[in-house]
Design a protein that fits this description.
- With 380 residues, the chain is of the alpha/beta class.
- It has two domains: 46-148 and 309-379, 3-Layer(bba) Sandwich (FAD/NAD(P)-binding domain); 154-306, 3-Layer(bba) Sandwich (FAD/NAD(P)-binding domain).
- The protein contains eight helices and 20 strands.
- It has helices at residues 4-43, 54-65, 96-106, 171-180, 215-229, 249-258, 310-318, 358-379; strands at 46-50, 69-73, 88-89, 94-95, 111-113, 118-123, 128-132, 137-140, 143-145, 149-151, 168-170, 192-199, 234-239, 263-266, 269-274, 280-286, 291-297, 299-304, 306-308, 346-348.
- The protein is elongated, with a radius of gyration of 28 Å.
- The mean pLDDT is 91.
Length: 380
Amino acid sequence: MATQDDSKTRLTVAERAERRVARRGMRLQLRAAARNDDITRAIRERVVIIGGGIAGMEAARQLLMLGYKPVIVEKDDHLGGHVASWHKLFPDMGDAQQIVAKLREEIMDATIYLSTEISVCNRLKDGYNIVLSNGMSILTRAILMSTGFTLFPAAKKEEYGYGVYDRVITNADLEHWFNTGDDARIPAEPKAVGFVHCVGSRDLKAGNSQCSKVCCITAIKQAMEMKERFPDAEVYCFYMDLRLFGKKYEDFYIKAQMESGVHFIRGRVSEVSENMQGQVIIKTEDTLSGKPAKITLDLLVLMAGIVCNKQAVHTASMVQVQTDSDGFLKSKDNILNIIETGSKGVFLAGTATGAKTIPETAAEARAAALAIHNYLVTQS
């Protein structure tokens, strides 16, 4: 039989257990409150985004939704990067301008500096002090390098005659003409048009062994657009290999052959010359049939490849981000941490690390925005 003293002892033990549970619950609540305070402090911060192309704009959009204050620093006088100067986008042939305009509309609350570059970036104990070319100074704990790419300078491939023959242009020149109709080099009614793939890509002599990933599909898109405008023209694509890996890309290629009537010839163009009429004469070999070919064209389009933005390399050096063996900015690794770098608080997105499609670029930008959020909260 339990005595009165035993009852008091058991009650005391129960009370102690209850109090321990209460104290533990209070500690958890305090920790949660402290973490919420950390998150609140973090999301009031500025995040500097270097580059206002698709990657920079999409990252800014995501950071705004997370409650941050993104600051876009863009060296050109407009947002959108290369896509802003494109006409239609493969494989759905959507309007490139609408994509850029939609993103621009959704980042109206971001701070945007156009025609501005990074002058100085000083490492601080907990972040960076960035001085802009317009004299502004920004303190931040996180930087996103979305510095994009440049096109290979086609004039370096002297055998193709860019800058020498009037009827030789680049893929960028053709996109500009699609948008504006302004290019005296493009004849009013071309009867034959050729596209040369891999100009400055997969070319050790040109200093770029990498595939530019989107050149094949861009050439097909542009060839189809030329057939739409000039149905009676003969349009040729001269390629080494067709690398069509994306969603609906193979269907796009089949459509170009079966419906648009684009001719695909496997072989490198070995020589380009000009006749008395100003037409371009190309020599190549069809490696599938083993026969040489000589074709007279009214227009030759060079598919200039994607190479690293040299200005980006200079800016990256300010924050101790290295250049990889392919010339692009170096990620922490190329599998799971491609958006991270070896520098604290510095992240990467888009074609700063290599050639990518727009969907891949946008996906990386979203991942980078989340990585920045996690980093800032953890640091807080």
